[in-house]
Amino acid sequence: MRRWWSWLAALVPFVLGLGLALLLQSGSLPNPVLYLEADLGTILLLVGLLLSGGVVGLVATRSRARRRLRQAVTEEQEESAEAHRRFVRRLDHELKNPLTAMRIGLANLADTPPASEQREVLESLETQAERLGRLVADLRKLIEVEARPMERVPVDVGELLEEAVELARQQSAAADRHLLLNVPRAPWPLPPVSGDRDLLFLAIYNLLDNALKFTRDEDRLEIRAFEDGTTIVVEVADTGPGVPDEELPHIFEELYRGQGARGIEGSGLGLALVKAVVEQHGGRAGVRSRSGQGTVFTLRLPTSS
Amino acid sequence: MVEEKPRILLVDDEVAITSNLGPFLERAGFAVQVAGDGEAALDRLESFDPHLIVLDVLMPKLDGREVCRRLRAAGNWTPILMLTQVGEATERAMTLEEGADDYLNKPFDPHELVARIRAVLRRARPGAPRLAGAERLACGPFVLDRTARRVLLAGHELPLTPKAVALLDYLMTHPHELLSRERLLDAVWGYDYPVGTRAVDMRIAELRKHLQDDPDEPEYIETVLGQGYIFVGQLEVMP
Predict the structure, then answer these.
(1) Which residues contact B133 (CB under 8 A, 6 or more apart)?
(2) What is the ipTM of this complex?
(3) pLDDT tens, A211-255?
(4) pTM of the entire structure?
(5) If exposure means fewest CB atoms within 10 Å of the residue's CB, which of A47, A107, A165, B100 is most exposed?
(6) What is the CATH number of domain A36-148?
(7) Which residues of A touch B (CB under 8 A)?
(8) H-helix or E-strand containing B237?
């Protein structure tokens, strides 16, 4: 639509000129003969100006077209991300009522002492209802992170890593693995990241927790951070069994569990949460892995300066 | 004389929930009536005269929030315990501002609901200050401005983080109640995760520092070792 108008606008000077010429030719207006005189320099200057004007116009149109295309792509991406968020929200919502009713029903049953053979069934049902409850809680966490406005304060990522590693060392699995932390202090410490300290801690701890879960005794875990231009890169690397190539693109998806994750406890939402937190901070989460050699998770966080 | 059972009006459109929860609450020692939507709840109020309303947020016809708003606007201060659905922190903050006394997220543990009902009923004793819906709460030299979300100490605004203010808000509107770190996380942070209890301790430390509250001889926030925190200050509702 807009395109037609701009073509029409371009035609206006021509149509005006044509009209005036016709009037002059027909004799209804006096049509004097004009003699123009110009030196070569002036003529070249005018020709140059005209050509430049044409080129500028052409470049402007093309870059606008490119911008429009880019905008359409981002809009589409945003729309599909939003549709996805809506779906997760609905899922969370639809699970809540039946789950609440189940838990109350089970509590009612538990109040009337059941026969011994029923007690076992009841306990198993309670365990499963609790498990579903945890899943709903984790979904909610994810929605919260994506939907709510974030607190922004300067966060010292180095300090955060030290605290997270200290906490991870308290896990029994940590005793059998080699944990190494490397945070640069020289020539200068890491610049701060502007964001929500608690959420960043959660993201980093989730990665450590994951690494502990998916490695074996005597494996090495290296946690490091460094500055790269205007971003801080956090890496959690391990010498574990690695992730098969075909699973890598899905590893940050909600509820995705690879072959290696069967039998390992978890909601399937931990890495999705890591990704959501990092993206809320304007950063990116990535992963590289070699089967049989190990895995490295990378978080890139823009610094506040 | 036999003490009268507290009357609870249970409002939810999910029959699966009310048919299970009604008997559960009755066994816990309450007299229960059920309403299936907001309008039915308002109709039932006069004849039943409940001590407390358990109110679901999402309902057809009249939702829980609107019921709460209408009651408060009409000067009815029957304690309300809201059952929230969407579970977003902003929604919860709104719920409290609109005059609900407490809220619980679905799916909840029914024993937790009974504990909360008892706590709200205890708080709602006649003569006790009406904390839900209060705009400003004072405690000794400091004032919590709940609408502007800030804290003033001797007239000066304290440089607190938004989360610390929200935490203080929850503590002050649930005084003399033992609040576990998990519950505070759920209420203020909107999520409860295994390592988050540390985050609560950090914000409590922030509050204590700015309020000049000595943890060994607390005037406002008391630590219950291994369990959580209690707000012990004397509260005053300011006009």
Answers:
(1) B72, B77, B97, B98, B99
(2) 0.78
(3) 999 999 999 999 999 999 999 999 999 999 999 999 999 999 988
(4) 0.72
(5) A47
(6) 1.10.287
(7) 89, 92-93, 95-105, 107-108, 111, 132-133, 136-137, 140-141, 143-145, 147-148, 151, 153, 163, 167, 197-198, 201-202, 205
(8) strand B236-238
